[in-house]
Specification:
The chain is α/β, with parallel strands linked by helices. It has helices at about 40-60, 60-80, 80-90, 95-115, 150-165, 180-190, 210-220, 230-245, 265-280, 300-310, 330-345, 375, 395-400, 415-425, 460-465, and strands spanning about 5, 10, 15, 20-25, 30-35, 120-125, 130-140, 140-145, 170, 200, 220-230, 245-250, 255-260, 290-295, 350, 355, 360, 365, 385-390, 405, 410, 430-435, 450, 455, 465-475. It contains 15 helices and 25 strands.
Length: about 475
């Protein structure tokens, strides 16, 4: 039987919606919950509630805001098993993914709380002997629009740092994970004693998302936007925010490369590639979609890689042996199918997998992918990677950079100096030597270049992104004015 949730969370109370929409379990297509379907008016009420709560929340001592964050983290940890089950059921995640995501998310709470104890500015020199200061302060109402693929981590990252800094929040989760990415957070912070109106959650269907999203961006009371999602939608969000001169942090897609040089530890490289390409069905912005291998070790790499790939089972998340669950919905499966068909038609060769059964996609490896193929140009966001053979470091760098995206990359080599030289020439916001491109920690700067986004999430970089910097001085009689005045 589908869950019936209390409603949206606006102004510290649960507001019943006039209509609902179904939230599906992607493994079996059953209705997992019936979710409130917000309108633009509901979003406006949430924004007004956040605005009304801002002044008092911003004036709350920093340590008290951090104490609430710690309390919320304790509540999350106490519910971790139930939340993990929801990751498998609502989000289609494998058991291992559920354990990883809940564990990582638990670390976001203390990281956000600790961020309040760092510097909030600096003292600057003044030629007039002033006390000259650069000081950060919260912005006001921040809209957080979060995705479905890692709804706990990516909602938490977008929400917790601006919240603890003194901003008030209106959160809109994806329609594919409205509980994990939205209403769960209201439950946790309500129990933690967060003042009314500081966090508001509005959920809506795909049909309502444009009207609700426009309100969350264009309402004049909204001062900043945090968006994580596709590049196509991110461009629209950024353009609308820019038209209103609003600060916008967008973390978007990737067509990420793992470069394997001829002196790499191939066992390590194969494991990094397998994890990077197929963790959570490849539905990660950091996923490895291109594996670029030096010709001297290409055949050996392939020989070691393919048996690992074919051992990964795809199936319903009720069976813990299935490392790959379903892709999130039918649209995702259709997109992956288009990429597969286009690649085959244009001459690419399937080395492993290639079969799609509804929302279940086998882990798939292609070779012979060329620039005219969708599989080369577009983010597939599924359990698929392409192998490329190169003759030297320069060719590997050129191929890795031949993309509109620039999120993350990995370089495998035993020679750290050589690896750093390659990393320094890659057009990505993040890069990792002798590890998978799939890497993140709560306190690090995370964000991409080019079509992978603008701005940084994580640690003090989130605090800088979601605060305003002011110049303030105290004059002590040192600056003269012209006598004519």
């Amino acid at each position: 039987m589908a869950r019936v949730l209390d409603g949206m969370y606006i102004g510290g109370g649960w507001a019943t919606a006039t209509k609902t929409f179904p939230d599906y379990n992607p493994s079996d297509g059953s209705v997992w919950a019936n979710i409130p379907d917000a309108s633009a008016d509901d979003a406006r009420r949430a924004i007004e509630a956040a605005h009304a709560a801002f002044e008092e929340w911003a004036a709350t001592p920093f340590n008290k805001r951090s104490h609430i964050m710690i309390k919320a983290g304790e509540i999350f940890e106490g519910r971790r098993q139930d939340i993990a089950e929801a990751v498998m059921e609502e989000g289609g995640g494998w058991f291992g993914k559920a354990m990883f995501e809940t564990g990582y998310t638990a670390e976001l709470f203390p990281a956000a709380a600790a961020a309040n104890y760092g510097s909030i500015g600096e003292v600057l020199p003044s030629e007039y002997g002033k006390l000259s200061m650069a000081v950060r302060r919260p912005m006001g109402v921040v809209s957080v629009i979060s995705p479905w693929n890692f709804p706990l981590i990516l909602t938490g990252r977008g929400l917790l740092f601006p919240l603890v800094a003194g901003n008030t929040i209106v959160l809109k989760p994806s329609e594919d994970t409205p509980y994990l990415g939205g209403l769960l957070w209201a439950e946790i912070f309500e129990e933690a004693g967060l003042p009314k109106g500081v966090l508001n959650v509005v959920t809506c269907s795909r049909e309502s998302v444009q009207a609700v999203g426009d309100e969350l961006i264009e309402n004049p009371l909204v001062k900043g936007i945090s968006f994580t999602g596709s590049t196509a939608v991110g461009r629209v969000v950024s353009a609308k925010a820019g038209a209103h001169l609003k600060k916008c942090c967008v973390e978007l897609g990737g067509k990420n490369a793992l470069i394997v040089l001829d002196d790499a530890d191939l066992e390590r490289a194969v494991q990094a590639a397998n994890f990077g390409a197929f963790m959570h069905q490849g539905q990660i912005c950091m996923s490895v979609e291109r594996i670029i291998v030096h010709e001297k070790v290409y055949d050996e790499f392939v020989e070691k890689f393919l048996p690992r790939v074919t051992k990964l089972k795809a199936g319903t998340t009720t069976d813990k042996e299935n490392v790959l669950g379903p892709v999130i919905n039918d649209r995702a499966a259709e997109r992956i199918g288009r990429h597969f068909d286009d690649a085959r038609k244009k001459g690419a060769k399937v080395l492993a997998g290639g079969h799609i059964d509804g929302r279940f996609v086998e882990p798939t490896v292609f070779a012979g992918v060329t620039p005219d193929m969708l599989l080369y140009q577009e983010e597939t966001f599924g359990p698929v990677c392409s192998l490329f053979k190169v003759s030297d470091d320069a060719e590997a760098i050129h191929l890795a950079n031949d993309s509109e995206y620039g999120l993350t990359a990995g370089v495998m080599t035993r020679d750290e100096e050589r690896g750093l030289a390659v990393m320094n020439r890659l057009d990505t916001g993040n890069c990792h030597l002798n590890c998978s491109p799939v890497n993140d920690e709560p306190h690090v700067p995370f964000g991409g270049f080019k079509a992978s986004g603008t701005g940084k999430h994580g640690g003090r970089w989130s605090m800088e992104t979601f605060t305003e910097t002011r110049w303030m001085t105290i004059d002590r009689g040192g600056r003269p004015f012209p006598p004519v005045f």
